[in-house]
Write a structure and sequence with these properties.
5 helices, mainly alpha
Length: 163
């Protein structure tokens, strides 16, 4: 089996994770070596971690690696299981599309809010993670649906055999 090539999303998550490690390490060093505390490190690491979580969830949709309980679906006849899996994707894309709309409204509503320590616009640094990652999830979900409709992908989403 050939190793998977890293995508742009993988590099973004790796960069955010590396930034989180650097920020938390700086806080530990300042606290225990210099006996001082950096006010902004806890806040920045929280925001970086939030983006890691949401972008990672979108990439899990891309790779069809979200946790699923396929006990019943795997025992259905193949045509019924295919319908259930496609319905699952359609429902997921619809929910994510709703979250995109509401999430961008949330970003606009909180436009005047600033982060306490860094003074950055909270709507872009924190709140925007939800609609941006949901939009990515919609894109990846629609791409999977198109692939299934064209017959290029098996309809067995995230099956145990792939793991």
């Amino acid at each position: 089996m050939e190793p998977r090539r890293l995508s742009v999303g993988d590099w973004i998550i790796a960069t955010l994770f590396g930034g989180t490690i650097v920020v938390v390490a700086a806080q530990v060093i300042w606290r225990y070596v210099f006996n001082a505390s950096l006010v902004w490190t806890e806040e920045l690491s929280r925001y970086l971690f939030t983006w890691i979580i949401f972008i990672g969830a979108a990439l899990a949709i891309k790779e069809a690696t979200h946790i699923r309980i396929g006990f019943l679906v795997d025992r259905l006849p193949p045509t019924v299981a295919a319908f259930v899996n496609v319905f699952h994707l359609v429902l997921m894309v619809a929910c994510l599309a709703f979250i995109v709309g509401v999430g961008f409204q949330w970003v606009v509503i909180n436009a005047d809010t600033r982060t306490p320590a860094l003074g950055l616009p909270l709507n872009y640094v924190f709140y925007a993670a939800l609609p941006v990652a949901s939009l990515l999830g919609v894109y990846f979900g629609v791409r999977q649906l198109v692939s299934i409709i064209r017959g290029k992908t098996d309809t067995q989403i995230g099956s145990a055999e792939e793991a």
